[in-house]
Amino acid sequence: MSIEELWDTYITSRDERARQQLILHYLPLVKHLAGRLAVKLPSFIQREDLEGYGVIGLMEALDKFDHTMGNSFDAYAYHRIRGAILDQVRRQNWLPRTAWQKLQHLKQTRERLERELGGAVPDEILAREMGISVDELNHLASSAGKMYLMSLDEEVPGSDGSVVRKLDLVEDTGSPDPLSIVEEKENRKLLARAIEKLGQRDQLILSLYYTEGLTLKEIGQVLEVSESRVCQLHGQVMRKLRKTLQEMLNS
Description:
Layout: H1 3-13, H2 16-40, H3 47-64, H4 73-91, H5 97-117, H6 123-130, H7 134-145, E1 155-157, E2 163-165, H8 178-185, H9 189-196, H10 200-211, H11 216-223, H12 227-250
Antiparallel strand pairs: 1-2
């Protein structure tokens, strides 16, 4: 189906499958914008995070675009995606604006000196070039750590040598995992009954992730949605399952 046909289908019926295909079609625009903005931002802000923010902006652009105005969607989406990325960066940045500007200056100065010197730049030279002391440089560098955006979907080595997500290593004491609830009640059939109460797509996501062992990216390919969308759907499914289990245990 051509892009024109996808748009016709989506505009006339708001078909979800057409929407997913349009998202995939415009993903290169998200990656392009994320790449351009990543160059201007401090290096500790991950490009993958920017792309995730951009995907959210793309989905909002599709939902709010008014084709009757005669505007180009590419131009409209460009501003929506860029705005969504910058909004999320600002929202998660709790440093003062002056500190943010200094960090950008530090990044630009270091990169310029690395090009000129052909390698790593000693702190003394970097501080002198910026017109500050080495102590001030170290303090500025430590501020960068306070802005580091950590993705809980990032994979790290587990204690047994396997690869796990950081999210899987975080214990939520206020909201136990559904499997933990079942084990405490010694009734695994309860989990199966709770899953049966979910919709078909929710059951499919659980099966692909926990039974088949597919990654979020692979599940996205099966469902024909973005990886970030699968992450959102997985979180929604787990909240539904947890609520259903708790209601069944309390009944």
